[in-house]
Design brief:
The chain is an alpha+beta fold and 120 residues long. The protein is built from 4 helices and 4 strands.
Length: 120
């Protein structure tokens, strides 16, 4: 079960040399009552993301797995204008006050930190 970054993961992210936008695919697996809790989390976190220049760019429901053993209930992609903006939000009192909604909603999760590549 992976719901929050380890101290080592978060520190490595803070020390990463990447500059520029961060695109975060979130793979989400909900617990029994998790979808409703996650909706509350999204309602609370979206203004925090947007006031920092970020946005939710994609949200979808998982239908099944074509390749691989994993199944995810939902996929969400969030864009932040920079690593520093994301760090500031995560460390903010506002975010810390609502983070429990995400943790309480999920049984498992993956968040990938990516940067955009050109499409040929």
């Amino acid at each position: 079960m992976t719901l929050v970054p380890t101290e080592e993961q978060f520190q490595a992210f803070k020390e990463h040399i990447h500059e520029g936008p961060i695109w975060m695919p979130n793979l989400l697996r909900f617990n029994k009552d998790g979808e409703a809790l996650y909706e509350r989390y999204l309602e609370a976190v979206t203004p925090l993301v947007e006031k920092r220049g970020g946005r939710i760019v994609f949200r979808s429901r998982g239908l099944g797995t074509l390749i691989g053993p994993d199944h995810w209930d939902e996929v969400l992609i969030v864009m932040y204008p920079s690593r520093d903006v994301l760090i500031e939000m995560i460390e903010s009192d506002e975010y810390q006050a609502i983070m429990h909604l995400r943790v309480d909603a999920l049984v498992d999760s993956r968040i990938y930190l990516t940067t955009e590549l050109p499409i040929p």
